[in-house]
Design goal:
By secondary structure, the chain is α/β, with parallel strands linked by helices. The protein folds into 2 domains: 18-295, Rossmann fold (3-Layer(aba) Sandwich), CATH 3.40.50.1820; 301-455, TATA-Binding Protein (2-Layer Sandwich). 38% of the residues lie in helices and 18% in strands. The chain has helices spanning 54-61, 86-100, 113-123, 146-153, 158-161, 165-173, 184-194, 198-207, 209-216, 240-249, 264-267, 269-280, 310-320, 326-331, 336-344, 360-363, 381-388, 419-423, 429-449; strands spanning 18-22, 25-32, 39-43, 65-69, 106-110, 130-134, 227-232, 253-258, 293-295, 301-306, 322-323, 353-359, 372-379, 400-406, 412-417. The radius of gyration is 27 Å and the shape is elongated. This is DUF302 domain-containing protein. InterPro entries: AB_hydrolase_fold (IPR029058), AB_hydrolase_sf (IPR050266), DUF302 (IPR005180), TT1751-like_sf (IPR035923).
């Protein structure tokens, strides 16, 4: 394979690359020693390089010894054709550990490194103490999409050789811009990693998924090494479904889904680093619940400064809202049609119903504090039904919560989580449509409650 040029970097944070000869190849690496600490091996994603770990490097280096590697044929490491498959890359990783004298390091191995470390464990159980992987296709049957699917399914790579490699890489990296601005020097490094035909040659690795992943699949249930899978909900190339399928096949795994795209380690660097730290500090030793899944979502929180006094706003809310009738709800078990008719008559302003009031201000008197704060539990069972009939998980957030309180300087505020961001996590168009309607209902309800009677 082509030997990459070494670019001049203006800055790479605290990641300082070096080169070593391993298995006859010039391999780029970076390290941060820490005496007495566990070693973490960080393996480069594609089409990036080991500099992809720059946003999380200092956080991890504060507690662990780090060794980052550009895999053969990726980043700025030399490669050879026979290594361009997950199976043979897994064997190389075993040799890599021996070269550096590593005994059961942890591995952070996103993207193409994910199936490679799984193969290393299958070939030699105990190669790694734990695996922190994701954003790389690992399950079979293949679950891929976008450009990755096109590369894997293409009859040959000839069509890709005529394309502008820089444009392809930059287009893929553009996804990161909404979350994190890549330094120019890092972008230059990524482009150098793809130059002179190296990007197309690296495609042979993912094309080998068609033969290697069917061989890996039956071995996954026997891999007892702790595995944490981190996936981006909006990954255009490796859907969450791949991570979910892998999670089901592994006997000792945890799955976390972040609200971002493919490049989880850069797009959600702070969360990624936190998850990795918790895992490396000992979380890997705690066997998870069967099929446990952690999903990280972005919630839009509304804080609205009101004009009226606390007493006026809360009195208006309690007057505007309908009241729940438990007997009508109970009737659904024996006479659904009549129950629906009765529930339909309960709605107040914006067809919203009050389920409960929690007077947190009064509760705080138990600690000798005098405050004004009320939490309202509100919604409508029939509106909730419009969502739960499509996805039962919507019941987690129905009814809604609204807090009205007064600060020490007599300012009155209303706060709540935007329904569309709560329910939107379920990625169901019908549910989201109803939730967007709830956004508007809450907005109009608060406006009405904060408007003096003579202006209504």
């Amino acid at each position: 394979m082509t030997t990459p040029a070494t670019p001049v970097l203006d800055t790479a944070g605290t990641v300082y690359p070096e080169f070593a000869t391993i298995a006859g190849l010039r391999i780029r690496y970076a390290h941060s020693p820490r005496a007495g600490a566990d070693t973490v091996l960080l393996l480069s994603p594609w089409p990036e390089s080991l500099l992809a770990f720059r946003p999380i490097w200092d956080t991890l280096a504060a507690e662990f010894a780090l060794l980052a590697i550009d895999l053969p044929g990726f980043g700025l490491s030399e490669g050879r054709p026979e290594l361009m498959s997950p199976r043979t890359m897994g064997q190389f990783l075993i040799e890599l550990n021996a070269h550096f004298g590593l005994t059961q390091p942890h591995a952070i191995a996103p993207d193409v490194a994910s199936p490679s470390v799984l193969f290393a464990e299958a070939l030699q159980p105990g190669t790694f103490r734990s695996l922190f992987i994701g954003s790389g296709a690992c399950s079979f049957p293949l679950i891929v999409d976008g450009v990755l699917k096109q590369i894997i399914e293409a009859e040959s790579l000839d069509m890709f050789r005529a394309l502008d490699t820089d444009a392809i890489v930059l287009n893929s990296l553009s996804e990161i811009k909404a979350y994190y601005t890549l330094p120019d020097a890092i972008v230059a490094d990524y482009l150098a990693a793809a130059a002179d035909g190296r990007f197309v040659e690296a495609m042979n690795f993912v094309r080998a998924y068609k033969t290697d992943l069917p061989a890996l699949a039956p071995q996954l249930p026997a891999l007892h090494t702790p595995v944490h899978i981190v996936s981006g909900r909006h990954d255009p190339n490796v859907p969450v479904a791949d991570a979910e399928a892998l999670h089901r096949q592994l006997p000792n795994s945890t799955l976390t889904v972040l609200d971002c795209g493919h490049y989880t380690w850069e797009e959600e660097a702070d969360t990624y680093a936190r998850l990795a730290l918790n895992w490396l500090r000992g979380g890997y030793q705690h066997r998870p619940y069967t099929a446990a899944t952690e999903t990280v979502i972005a919630i839009k929180h509304q804080a609205i400064k009101l004009q009226r006094r606390f007493e006026d706003v809360t009195a208006a809310l309690e007057s505007l809202l309908g009241r729940i009738d438990e007997a009508s709800l109970a009737l659904a078990a024996t006479n659904p049609a009549q129950a629906e008719q009765q529930l339909a008559r309960l709605g107040g302003y914006e067809n919203l119903i009050l389920f409960q009031i929690q007077d947190h201000g009064t509760l705080l008197r138990l600690r000798g504090a005098a405050h004004k704060a009320k939490q309202y539990v509100l919604g409508n069972p029939l509106i909730a039904l419009q969502m739960t009939q499509h996805d039962l998980r919507a019941a987690l957030y129905a009814p809604l919560r609204l807090l009205v309180y007064e600060t020490t300087d007599q300012q009155v505020w209303a706060e709540y989580d935007l329904p569309s961001s709560l329910f939107g996590q379920f990625q169901n168009e019908a549910v989201t449509t109803v939730a967007l309607g709830l956004d508007e209902k809450l907005r109009r309800l608060l406006h009405r409650a904060d408007t003096p009677t003579d202006e209504q």
